[in-house]
Amino acid sequence: MEIKQLEYFVATADHGSLNKAAEYLYTSQPNVSKVIANLEKELGVLLFERNSRGIKITEQGNLLYTYALSILKNSNMIQVLVKKQAETYFCVSGYQSSILTRLVADLYVAHKDKGIKFGYREGTVEEITDHVSEHLSEIGIVYLAHSQLPCFHHIMWHKKLEYHPLGDRGIRIYMGNQHPWYHRDSIEFDELKELKFMEGTEDFFAMEHHIDRISIGAMQMENRNNAVYTNSDYMIHNMLKHTDVCCMGIDFVSKDYEAQGIKALKVNDCERFLTIGYVKQKKKELSMEAKYYIEELKKKLSEYNDLL
């Protein structure tokens, strides 16, 4: 069995057509058909049923599909890792964040003459920790509720990672200058129910799932008015700048937002129920770039604390 056979099989299954798979793979339909037929012969099973209306994946094909995706993913990871070993590469994983990405830009400026390639990957807590576990990123920046730390530490153990906390944070409510409350400096807990929010990607560790645990009498977050659902940073910024929809974020605000007409309102009497920190490979020494990035992040956190 060859990787090429699995690539052709997955493409055919995804497109439901030999012709469309051929277009996707930049090859001919007879070539795709031949590769699939050879794979079926090698495995001794029928992967697709052929008829006058096209093809349909079989039960055996569905079973192979799941494993084929896993094999192709691991194959791609191996290629990436081998390529990285031939060059100096530093990547951080984190959330959609102006501050975290700006630190990568600053790191690039400080080290651009050293021939280093830089990267930043966005994702949920699960995706960020996967990136570090799979060596796609050297470090991952996460924040999560204190109540989730026992579960998170179990995940760290399972993925052979370490979590190093850098500080505790509360939340802010981000809104643009189209919002009638834009000129306010703070908001009360019981006023949250009057706002319209954006909700991002499904993430068990997302702060909005745990805010109802930090203050007696706070609104139940399942009753929150979620007007928009998106995982797009561009969508979030456009909704904040041009509508009265808000979003919830960590109390660690970039100055860049003010220049874009976006403000972060303090939530009065909000406990610092979030911990922010970084994850790394267990017992692995950090590179100079990673140490630099973390130290700069610590400085940003300290500077922000002084402003509070």
UniProtKB/TrEMBL annotation:
What SUPFAM superfamilies does the database record attribute to this sequence? Periplasmic binding protein-like II (SSF53850), Winged helix' DNA-binding domain (SSF46785)
Matches recorded under CDD domains: PBP2_LTTR_substrate
**Residue ranges of every copy of the HTH lysR-type domain listed in the record:** 1-58
UniProt keyword annotations, A-Z: DNA-binding, Transcription, Transcription regulation
User: Which domain of life does the protein's organism represent?
Assistant: Bacteria
Sequence similarity: Belongs to the LysR transcriptional regulatory family.
This protein is called what?
A: LysR family transcriptional regulator
- Origin organism lineage: Bacteria, Bacillati, Bacillota, Clostridia, Lachnospirales
